[in-house]
Amino acid sequence: MGERRRSNVGRLPWLVGAIAVSFTVMSAGVADAGPRPFGDARILAQVPTPPGFPEGIAYTNNLVLVSGPATFGTAGGPPSQVLMFSATNGLLLKAFPTKGENLALEHANSSIALDRLNRVYVLNTQLGIYRLSLNGKQEQYSTPFPDLKPCGTVPPGTPCSPTPFDAPPLPNDIVFDAAGNAYVTDSTQATIWIVPPGGGQPQIWFQDIRLASTSIGVNGIRLNPARTKVFVTVTADLDGRAFVYTLPLVAHPSAAQLKVFHEYTNGDAPDGIAFGRSGRLYVTIATPFASGVSILSPKGIEVARLANTTNPIYPYDSPANAAFDGKGSMLLTNHAFATGGADPDQFTVLDVWVNDTGDPLEKPLII
Predict the structure, then answer these.
(1) Would you tell me how many other CB atoms lie within 10 Å of the CB of residue 105?
(2) Which residues contact 83 (CB under 8 A, 6 or more apart)?
(3) What is the pLDDT of residues 178-227, one digit of tens each?
(4) DSSP string, 37-50
(5) Which DSSP string do the residues of 150-217 spell out, in sequence order?
(6) Among 86, 181, 240, 350, which residue has the least CB neighbours within 10 Å?
(7) What is the pLDDT of residues 101-146, one digit of tens each?
(8) Distance from C-alpha of 121 to C-alpha of 54, rounded to nearest angstrom
(9) CB atoms within 10 A of CB 81
């Protein structure tokens, strides 16, 4: 993997898949049980550059799939990629460069989801959703996400964005329901899209000014274990506030049905989310130099926080998304958006022991 560079903030040395690191756990009723201490964090894999800036993550059959780069400034650079790692030892097994991007323009992969056949559905800023088989076959699944103009600038009835300014689409996270509908957050257009089973044109499922931001608004998305609600994070709204919201899993939710599940304070920037089989909601906190994982009870109360102690960017460096390995560990992508450009060694996949298995994501059979 080449020589590792020493971080300018004195990051500790590491060995892939072997080091346990310092962490802080603020707990309120989370049991410390299992073969490792609760919150024990280890680097499973180093994410190479390119692509760097890893975002999406999924686990299947002892494989860890990671997508990237989720960043700006990619015009003129190499294609986006999906990477396949061994969950046993973190070795990079295969890289799948994205086909069909115009490399002269901005291009990026954000999050991913799997279907029952273990095909990967990849959010791409240019292409929309493309589908990737693990044998390398790539096919287009949806059309690109529409660029919506602010509602105040277009005739009534025209599809538009509730944001007060014009911004291009930024598809960020994706989740399936049992029927095969894909729900996609659009972080710059205050929109949640729905793509029907089999793909095609994205349709507006929900919009609200509370999802808007001058940076990253609506972000992570998952269905609750009962499959009655959609949970989303807003990293920073127009007032700089951060939330986990819920919506009913219905065809056309109303603005009145958008409810606060948890509000974050003190500069916390929630990103991706994942439900444990325990019912707890694991929320990655991507705040630069104050990163970690917030663990919420089914009532929306924070019961534990995993955070750095001796080093502000180690082990957690703006983690983006989470997946469970079914054995008690949560796998995180360290997006490292504030540090990785100067120190690509910060792009990692973490294995964090939480003594919980994931609530199984819907993996529909899509023809």
Answers:
(1) 11
(2) 47, 48, 51, 54, 65, 66, 67, 68, 92, 94, 95, 96
(3) 999 999 999 999 999 999 999 999 999 999 999 999 999 999 999 999 99
(4) -TT-EEEEEEPPTT
(5) BGGGS-TTS--B-SSS-----EEEEEE-TT--EEEEETTTTEEEEE-TT-B--EEEEE-GGG--SS--
(6) 240
(7) 999 999 999 999 999 999 999 999 999 999 999 999 999 999 999 9
(8) 16
(9) 21
Domains in the chain: ranges and CATH: 24-353 (2.120.10.30)
Q: Residue 228: what are its φ and ψ, rounded to 5°?
A: -110, -15
Task: Look up tokens 């990103």; give the residue.
Answer: 271
Predicted local confidence at residue 4, as pLDDT: 32
CA angle 263, 41, 84 (to 5 degrees): 95
Other beta carbons less than 10 A from residue 17's beta carbon: 18
**In angstroms, rounded to a whole number, what is the distance separating the alpha carbons of residues 123 and 136?**
16
Q: Say how far apart CA 83 and CA 147 lie, in whole Å.
A: 28
State the Cα–Cα distance between residues 316 and 242, nearest whole angstrom.
19
Mean per-residue pLDDT of the chain: 92
Secondary structure of 317-330 in the HEC alphabet? CCEEEEEECCCCEE
Residue 22 CB neighbours (<10 A): 13
Pair of tokens at residue 308: 């750095």
CB 80 within 8 A of CB 107: yes
Instruction: For residue 319, list its beta bridge partners.
Output: 334
Q: Count of CB atoms within 10 A of residue 14's CB?
A: 17
Tokens of 80: 């986006």
